[in-house]
Amino acid sequence: MEKPNTKIDHRIKSWPQFFQPMIDGLKKHDMRNMKDRDYKVGQVLLLQEFDPFGGGYTGREAMFRVTYITSNDTPCALSSAALEDGFAILSLERLSADTVDASPASDQLAFAFNVQFTGAKSMFDDFLYNARRDTALARRRDEVLH
Fold this sequence. Notes:
- By secondary structure, this protein is of the alpha+beta class.
- 35% of the residues lie in helices and 28% in strands.
- The protein folds into 2 domains: 1-101, Archaeosine Trna-guanine Transglycosylase, Chain: A, domain 4 (Roll); 104-146.
- The chain is built from 4 helices and 5 strands, in the order E-H-E-E-E-H-E-H-H.
- The chain has a 5-stranded mixed sheet.
- The chain starts with 9 loop residues before the first strand and ends with a helix.
């Protein structure tokens, strides 16, 4: 694995349930919207763990290199039937076993400040996380049922 001094081409959000398997080496691909960014083989991505229900970036980051792109432009046997136009599956390789702390100093400070407050704040954060998650799940359930 390479050292984390490689140029970063894209900084992208990664939800915790996808980020951790990437870190563990169990998940080696990521589906992305190509309309947002012009991904290319060889580019370096900085995946930044982002909790959509808990309030933002967690501070965990890691670098990956794009090794292959499956899309309607570079198809496999079923990609034209399975992938919507503008979406692609990026094959990725981890560049470093260490997580990278490449966030701006202000983000690092804010994260460190948040880590200092455990106890009541942590319980409140857990409550908010669960409430947001439960609300989102209820909305999805209602959309499916109606």
